[in-house]
Structures are given as structure tokens and as C-alpha cells.
TrEMBL record:
Protein name, per record: 1-acylglycerol-3-phosphate O-acyltransferase
SUPFAM superfamilies (alphabetical): Glycerol-3-phosphate (1)-acyltransferase
Lineage: Eukaryota, Viridiplantae, Streptophyta, Embryophyta, Tracheophyta
Residues annotated as transmembrane: 23-51
Cross-referenced Pfam families: Acyltransf_C, Acyltransferase
Domain named Phospholipid/glycerol acyltransferase: residues: 100-222
Organism: Microthlaspi erraticum
Length: 384
């Protein structure tokens, strides 16, 4: 059963045609996003993800969250303000909470980008991190960003992934440090073929037959929740659907799809989710059965239940200000790189080398290195 509605006569009226103006605007948007991402990473990453991190991991994360949170805000503004996509929220209201675990169904390659729309409204966009396929870390430029923002890469092999996840999650346990950790338990985007394989496996092992989502891979959720549950405020169980059809990345760039994004929110306090492996797996399976029912109802009715009356619109003024600041600072960085003193060219070259090295070798410095050096120096001074 399709969750994204098939293009009937009504939906075709909503679908936005790919006009020459949209193509031109899309090319300009791609250039803006690539150039701003490249320049922000080149100029800020060595300062805040390397130098400052050697002194304080907490302060490094705080600075990176502030700077790149403003860059990430370009995307929700693009969706809603520029492309005119309507985002509709249902279910529980979301208070301003700094430490949450988000789980969502995975319908298309850009589901994860629409989680930014919620985080931006709550002032938490810079804190969001994802568990994502390690292959995405190899994307040009954006792979650097994923590394600097400390996304957790996985190979989808338990024996390989679990030690990596536990190591990174152990650095996120400080309850004073904001964290929005997002996870797609299905592990891959939904297709009819994958759904049939998932249903076949479910029938063989006696698990529920789901029509609109795949069976969740429970171990990843259990590892995340078990490692963090003592410091989390809540778990946000999100169910996402689109009209008139599921968008691709290029649909977003050119502004052709979607016309509407529907997000149902179920907020569960962290202490209400069982922490043990077996019980948390059962809880997740129940949650996906609920998702399956919600998506079936959406297919039939075109909406989720309990639409929120307090739909918060993004500010056009903030949108313009954010674009202005990011683009003007990028223009300054380009000028410094091309036409200013040669030391800026050297800095760009060194930064490029560092980002390539750090991303490839998964290198993240720790303030403990400086702490050890200071500790050793103080011991030597005492001995003398």
C-alpha cells in the first residue's frame, strides 16, 4: 500500500511543473549550498573542530552547533519559504527539550532533512545528529560536514557497527550537553520490493506483517537508548507522509515536490520506554505497528489524526536575514581565498588537507590530549 499518494487528477493540480525558471533557480540554489558549505567548513572547521576541541569538547560542540545550525537553517527555509511546501504537524506538542532521541519511518532519501523543520522551530537545529550509512560520509563536501557535526556512520553489520556506536555515544552522555539524535530503524528507504521481502521474513519468524513500513532493526535503537536513556528527556516517535508523492533530493532543489509534508509526533518520556534490550525492542516493534496503522489511515483519509491547531510558521524575516548573513560571509571568504594575502590560500590548502584526512580516517581530537600534556608538565614541575 502506498503512503505517498499516487498522482490522480487532484494531485496533479498540486504538482509543480519543472519550468525553465525552476531549473535556473535550482542550479543557483545548488551553487549557493555547495559554495556556502565548502567555505564554512574550510574556514571554521580547523578553528572549532580542531583547535577549540583540543581545549574543550563542550565548547567546540557549542560553537559548531551555533555556526552550522545557521547554515542548516537554509534548508527548512528553502522548503517552506522558497518552495512553498506546507508542513503540517499532528499529535503531541513538542516542548523545548535539549536531549531527545528521534525515530522515524524512512520513505525517501530526504526524510532526514524534514526533521530539520521541527528542530529549527525549537531552536535545536544545531544539536541534531544522525545515525547514517557510512557511504554518505564519502560524499564530496557534505561528508566533511557529517564528520564535523559528529554524525554516527554505520555499515549495517552488527559486529562492526556496535563498537563504533558505543564509542561515539559514550561521548554524548553529558546531560548538560544538548543532543537531538535521529535514527531511522528500518535501515533503508521503503519500496514495495523491500516491503515484500520484509513481510516474507516477518511471516517466517512470527513477527507482525507491516504494509507501509519495513520491520525495524531493533538492535540499533536498543544500543542508542540503553547508552543515553539516563540523560534523555524524551523519545519523539515521528511518522512522515507526503503529498502528492515522495520527493527526491532534486525535487527539493527545483521546488517541484512535495506540496505538503505531514508529520505525526508521538512524544514519550524517556522513563516510560523500557531500557532493557528485549523490552525496548518490543516497544519499538509496537511503535512501528502504530506507524503502519497511521500511514494506512493517511492513505485513506489524506491526513493523520489530531492535527495541531498551533501550526508555527517560519519567519520570512529570519529567512532573509539567515540567507543574507550566510551568503555575505561566504562571499567574504571567497574574496579572501582568491584575492587577499597568500596566507589565506595556505590556510585553505591546509584546511582542505585536514578535512580530507580527518573524514577519511575518522579523526576527532579530544581535549584529553591537552589535559594529558598539561598533567605531564605539572608532574615534571613537581618532581623538579
Amino acid at each position: 500500500m502506498e503512503v505517498c499518494e499516487e498522482p490522480n487528477s487532484d494531485n496533479l493540480k498540486k504538482n509543480k511543473p519543472l519550468t525553465p525558471i525552476r531549473i535556473l533557480r535550482g542550479v543557483m540554489i545548488l551553487l549557493v549550498f555547495l559554495s556556502t558549505a565548502f567555505m564554512y567548513l574550510i574556514y571554521f572547521a580547523p578553528i572549532f573542530a580542531l583547535a577549540l576541541r583540543l581545549l574543550s569538547v563542550h565548547q567546540s560542540r557549542k560553537a559548531i552547533s551555533f555556526l552550522f545550525g545557521h547554515w542548516l537553517a537554509l534548508w527548512p527555509y528553502l522548503f517552506e519559504t522558497v518552495n512553498g511546501t506546507t508542513v503540517v504537524f499532528y499529535g503531541d506538542s513538542v516542548p523545548v527539550e535539549k536531549r531527545v532521541l528521534l525515530i522515524a519511518n524512512h520513505r525517501t532519501e530526504v526524510d532526514w532533512m524534514y526533521l530539520w523543520n521541527i528542530a529549527l522551530r525549537k531552536g535545536c537545529l544545531g544539536y541534531i545528529k544522525y545515525v547514517l550509512k557510512s557511504s554518505l560520509m564519502r560524499l564530496p563536501i557534505f561528508g566533511w560536514g557529517f564528520h564535523v557535526l559528529e554524525f554516527i556512520p554505520v555499515e549495517r553489520k552488527r559486529e562492526v557497527d556496535e563498537p563504533v556506536m558505543l564509542q561515539m555515544l559514550s561521548s554524548f552522555k553529558d546531560p548538560k550537553e544538548p543532543l537531538w539524535l535521529a535514527l531511522f530503524p528500518e535501515g533503508t528507504d521503503f519500496t514495495e520490493e523491500k516491503c515484500k521481502r520484509s513481510q516474507k521474513f516477518a511471516a517466517e519468524v512470527g513477527l507482525p506483517l507491516l504494509s507501509n513500513v519495513l520491520l525495524p532493526k531493533t538492535r540499533g535503537f536498543s544500543v542508542c537508548f540503553e547508552a543515553l536513556h539516563n540523560s534523555l528527556d524524551a523519545v519523539y516517535d515521528l511518522t512522515i507522509a507526503y503529498k502528492p508523492r515522495c520527493p527526491s533530493f532534486m525535487d527539493n532543489v527545483f521546488g517541484t515536490d512535495p506540496s505538503e509534508v505531514h508529520i505525526h509526533v508521538r512524544r514519550v518520556l524517556a522513563n516510560e520506554v523500557p531500557a532493557s534490550d528485549e523490552e525496548s525492542s518490543a516497544w519499538l516493534m509496537d511503535s512501528f505497528q502504530l506507524k503502519d496503522k497511521l500511514l494506512s489511515d493517511f492513505s485513506a483519509q489524506g491526513r493523520f489524526p489530531n492535527q495541531r491547531p498551533d501550526q508555527e510558521e517560519l519567519s520570512v524575516l529570519k529567512c532573509i536575514a539567515t540567507f543574507g548573513v550566510v551568503i555575505s560571509s561566504t562571499a567574504l571568504f571567497i574574496y579572501l581565498s582568491l584575492y587577499s594575502h597568500s596566507c589565506f590560500k595556505v590556510y585553505v590548502g591546509l584546511s582542505f588537507t585536514y578535512l580530507s584526512f580527518a573524514t577519511y580516517y575518522k579523526f576527532r581530537p579530544s581535549s584529553s590530549v591537552v589535559g594529558c600534556c598539561i598533567g605531564d608538565s605539572s608532574k615534571e614541575a613537581k618532581n623538579h
